[in-house]
Write a structure and sequence with these properties.
By secondary structure, the protein is α+β, with helices and mostly antiparallel strands. The protein has four domains: 2-45; 85-183, Thrombin, subunit H (Beta Barrel); 195-309, Beta Barrel (Thrombin, subunit H), CATH 2.40.10; 320-406, PDZ domain (Pdz3 Domain, Roll). The chain contains eleven helices and 19 strands. The strands form three sheets. The protein has a six-stranded antiparallel β-barrel. The longest helix has 37 residues, at 10-46. The chain is extended and about 120 Å long. The N and C termini lie far apart (140 Å).
Amino acid sequence: MLNSISESNPLSKESTGNSLMLKKFLMTIAFFALLATGITIGKYFFSGGNNEPGSNAVQGNQPAGDINKSITDTRENAITRAVKKISPAIVGINVEEVREYQDPFSFFDNDPFFKQFFGNRPPQKQIVKGLGSGFIISSDGYILTNDHVAGNATKISVTLTSGETIEAKMIGTDKNSDVAVLKIDKSNLEYAKLGNSDDVIIGEWVIALGNPFGLFEINDKPTVTVGVVSATDMKVNADGNRVYKDMIQTDASINTGNSGGPLVNAEGEVIGMNTIIYTGGQFSSGSIGVGFSISINRVKKIMEEIKTKGKIERTFNVGFRIQAVDERIAKYLGLDVPVGVVVTDVQRGGLSSEAGLKPEDVIIEANGEKIRNEQDLIFVINDLEDGDMLNMKIIRNKNESNISFELKPSK
């Protein structure tokens, strides 16, 4: 039988023993090979995967200072470099303004009985303090800010990032554009580089710097917020006759005190002046991510004229009144749809009268801009100055024509 033959064969027993020894030997070699491979792989991963000369991997015997420097280098980016570049040019601005207010007892002036006790009480004066931001634009101390920050101030103080506070002089201001130029008596100052706001890209990173809520005064450093350009070439209706056009919208947080500070791109160049924000309503005055900056190209044009003349001359009087065209007026004038504004009155002997403008003329365009309502035309006119031309396209008796005249100073 097969079993008996196997057991009685000495050669078969010897072969079996040798096979077992060979298997044990091979398993031992495989174990040590696997162990060596594991050690090599462990060294690779725990050393950062790169042991080549010149590698940036942090070694176990690397000095602590070098380790910290490596970490710091990885945290730096375009935003941090831009902030470092522009920060020395930012200033905090504190102003004092004298305001008149009506005496609460003045309503007794017309009453004979109470008048004997209170008399004629003139308007009272009060010193009001305010704050804002600004930025240095030349080594000899010229500073840009908003008119609504410093335009009516009787005293202006500027705080530098060095901690030094210096009294500033008003060089000139323009209420309509909300731009003011200050000067401090100091030289060799670091100053901001003014960029080109025509190159702004919607969606690009921007940085707002300034003095919100007076925080600059705590440590002599500007507060930094970051966002993107949300929109460009914006018009914003706010604050009376001010002309907020060519505005850059951003979601970088802008709050009270940021007015007059710069909006900066990732290269550290100023592309706008932070000016106004939309808030959450009458019960909220903080940022909701809708802020507006005056484009720096517009600011530069106004700034140069202020530095040369001290102000923007806007003494002209166009000499006509307007009203929005509604459906009733459109039907009366024979217009297919309500469009533009209608002239309701023309001053005899005025600039517009001499140019041929008449009541019931409908203005649909002014200096190349479409006119949809009164505010559109007010924007165009309030942005002009003495010597500029006003070119209007009008509809008269259902026909279009053009009227142009020079804006001469009022006599």
